[in-house]
Sequence to fold (73 residues):
Amino acid sequence: MGLPTQTSRAELIRKLKVLGWEDPLSGGKHQFMRKGTHKVHVPNPHGSSTIGRGLLREILRQAGIEEDSWAQV
Fold:
């Protein structure tokens, strides 16, 4: 099962929280989420607040989350 073509910012945050990441924290121009020593920047809400497949894939790569694990949440 592949990644969706678009994901909402709220859905991204919800799934990261389910996977053990802390609530978004303010940090400069973008909020970020932490899990241990890992930190992932969360896109700011703009217009439709949707995140494309490419950006979602990059966020998951930086977080060390496999696409299969993401799809199961």
